[in-house]
């Protein structure tokens, strides 16, 4: 008896039910011309039909559809239990989707790999809210390709492709964000306050600047082979309507005579390309320390005053 109940619920609420991919909309037509009313569907199961009527009356088929939609959430809860009870191998997701980045113009593969697809079971891909793939078929072969079991490839990624995708399989729903990046046009590393060399024995801002990337680049800092990113402060400049902008990262460094020769490396990354650009700075002694600099400045001023007095 429990098996029969499971079969009824799965048959009514299952994901293999007829799916409308293009809903009807109110349409106008000139007198004497033809008009097309759209109600595009996929995944028509056994015993399911599409009926067109010029009518305002509701039918029992509509009530059945409403009943089926009310039961559909039960599918996600009961399917694994029913599959176990009936001795079925439920569809299994072996590689779940993860947020993915891609460079403009390149292809991105979104993974939702499955096994054990049984009769009447399907894997549905959406670019929220539109259906873009059903099992091995793509609704737009110029943009999306379905490969393997059943991963989607977004081809020639553009800014408009950025957004949320969904994979529905075996009573599970997964969301994934696709981010589209573009590498910086330039990267520079320098000492703050326009210094050519740092001031010894004092705090200096070692600055890394990324120019015109999408989105503004993120940074990693290394001192030799040690990751010191957590010690840095990163800020973004103005971002334009297409998501492009500059970014800046500041690492506080206090040079001393003992760390001359230390190498600092800055790496800039965007979605789809880690370490898109990098620059290095090597400590080479730098300017004298602050106290010594002030002493030398005072001596120079005094010397100039003495010479001036002697000349007079």
From TrEMBL:
Domain of life: Eukaryota
Any one Pfam family match given in the protein's UniProt record, by short name: C1-set
GO biological process: cell-cell adhesion
InterPro entries assigned to the protein according to its UniProt record, in alphabetical order: Cell_adhesion_signaling (IPR051275), Ig-like_dom (IPR007110), Ig-like_dom_sf (IPR036179), Ig-like_fold (IPR013783), Ig_C1-set (IPR003597)
Membrane-crossing residue ranges in chain numbering: none
Span of the signal peptide: 1-17
Subcellular locations according to the entry: Membrane
Keyword Signal belongs to the record: yes
Subcellular location, principal: membrane
Molecular-function GO term, any one: cell adhesion molecule binding
GO cellular component, one term: cell-cell junction
Keywords noted in UniProt: Disulfide bond, Glycoprotein, Immunoglobulin domain, Membrane, Signal
Membrane topology designation: Single-pass type I membrane protein
Residue ranges occupied by any Ig-like domain in the UniProt entry: 91-179, 184-284
Name under which the protein is recorded: Ig-like domain-containing protein
The organism's taxonomic lineage, starting at the top: Eukaryota, Metazoa, Spiralia, Lophotrochozoa, Annelida
